[in-house]
Specification:
With 446 residues, the chain is mainly alpha-helical. The protein has helices at 22-51, 53-56, 63-95, 97-117, 121-124, 127-155, 163-188, 193-200, 202-206, 208-219, 226-229, 241-248, 250-281, 286-314, 316-340, 343-362, 365-370, 375-395, 397-407, 413-430. This is MFS transporter.
């Protein structure tokens, strides 16, 4: 299989000389906190889709059908993510990274707050689920633009030998937001069930406005990417970034997406579908399950941190391949642990999936995607790969797996088989991508 070469050129890379300077620390904090806030809102919806929306917005349906409908609205948000990546990526590559990041954060915060204020279907009829879907689309568009910009602001300021670690701050922000969202839902889930479903679940959504205000204060103080400011070739300015990505780097998009799908398949399975499965089907305590999920997300942060640091030393490919192989090998054992229906086994399964498998793949993934594309189209290219990975890997997984379990009569073996197949495909795709750790990101379009 021919290998995809990351862009190289003899140009001198523009970067802040150290990650320890006050300015660089501010950039890394902005990348981490901004991403955490965006994914707090996005994962908050996913958690509510597992536990709440089927009972509030999809009433008068059989429980399995209502849950399927709830997961379908979740998938709609993931469908919007690639579009958000394209739209925000276009303006990020044309106008700069900073402005689009501020816009995406405001969009997400407003949409989440309105979700928290939506009346239930029992009060306003079909207006409620329709509005929920529309707001989920806005969330998908916003988060589609967030990650690429947050990751690139850190990576494009960083010295070459620390790019993987710098880019991982956006990746660590995702599970940090998941921890915050899970703990927020866990706290209100201690309310009596009637109160939780009536108003308790709304509190974490409405609280999003305060988090966005904090994020904006930090983000407004960050300077524009030096690599973006260094662009000088006016001839390329008239070209559409998306068309350049699709015509010049189609293999990078396809192979990068297949690799990224592995991490997101784990996320969709273990942090969305499995939560509903162990609470509704296995009868585990809702609050205990959410607390386990929060610990699992914390382990993801640790896994991302370690994997990113080692990727700067060993390369992106060997570190990510370790996670991919681990995922293929552990797919069936993890499904067995879920089916046995014990909380401690669920915890082990989730910790392996989040900390070891997802963390190891996701840690270097920011630098991995960025190194596939030159500066002029990097926001669009990296965002497209990331968001396609999330949509195909996580967006449809809960819905598909719910249907597969029904087809298999409650057995989870078919889920494990699908999971392992996705990881085998990712391993094959990784073979077609050449190591980009030493690529010079100051290289222009070739």
């Amino acid at each position: 299989m021919s290998q995809i070469q990351a862009p190289h050129a003899p140009a001198t890379e523009v970067a802040v000389p150290s990650l320890n300077s006050p300015h660089m620390r501010r950039i890394l904090a902005s990348s981490f906190i901004g991403s955490a806030i965006e994914f707090y809102d996005f994962i908050l919806y996913a958690t509510a889709a597992s536990l709440v929306f089927n009972k509030v917005f999809f009433v008068d349906m059989a429980p399995s059908v209502a849950l399927f409908a709830s997961f379908a609205t979740l998938a709609v948000g993931y469908l919007a993510r690639p579009l958000g990546g394209i739209i925000f990526g276009h303006f990020g590559d044309k106008l700069g990274r900073k402005g689009v990041l501020i816009t995406s954060m405001v969009m997400m915060g407003v949409a989440s707050t309105i979700i928290g204020l939506l009346p239930p279907t029992a009060q306003v009829g079909m207006i409620a689920p329709i509005a929920l879907i529309a707001l989920r689309i806005i969330q998908g568009l916003a988060v589609g633009g967030e990650w690429g910009g947050a990751m690139l602001m850190a990576l494009e300021h960083a010295p070459k030998e620390r790019r993987g670690f710098a880019a991982s701050f956006a990746n660590m922000g995702g599970p940090a937001g998941a921890v915050l969202a899970t703990l927020a839902v866990s706290a209100v889930s201690t309310l009596p069930n009637e109160a939780f479903l009536a108003w308790g679940w709304r509190i974490p959504f409405i609280a999003s406005l305060g988090l966005v205000a904090i994020g904006l204060v930090i983000r407004l103080k960050v300077t524009e990417s030096p690599l973006f400011l260094a662009l000088e070739d006016e001839a390329e300015e008239k070209k559409i970034p998306l068309m350049q990505v699709l015509t010049k780097y189609p293999k990078s998009v396809i192979m990068g997406t297949l690799v990224g799908m592995s991490s997101y398949t784990v996320q969709g399975l273990m942090t969305v579908w499995a939560i509903s499965y162990v609470v509704e089907d296995a009868g585990m305590d809702r609050t205990a399950v959410l607390n386990v999920k929060a610990v699992g997300a914390t382990l993801t942060i640790l896994g991302v941190w370690l994997a990113a640091r080692y990727s700067d030393k060993l390369g992106r490919r060997p570190v990510m391949m370790f996670g991919i192989v681990s995922g293929a090998v552990l797919a069936m054992p993890i499904m067995l642990m879920l089916q046995l229906g014990e909380l401690w086994l669920f915890a082990i399964a989730l910790f392996l999936a989040n900390g070891l498998i997802q963390g190891t793949i996701f840690g270097p993934f920011g630098a991995f995607t960025a190194e596939l594309f030159p500066t002029r189209i990097r926001y669009t290219g990296a965002s497209l790969v990331y968001q396609l990975s999330s949509t195909l890997g996580a967006g449809f997984t809960p819905m598909i797996v719910a249907a597969l379990v029904l087809f298999a009569g409650g057995s989870l073996w078919v889920v494990g088989a699908v999971w392992a197949s996705v990881f085998v495909l990712a391993a094959l795709a990784m073979r077609g991508i050449k190591e980009g750790k030493d690529a010079d990101l100051a290289a222009e379009n070739m």
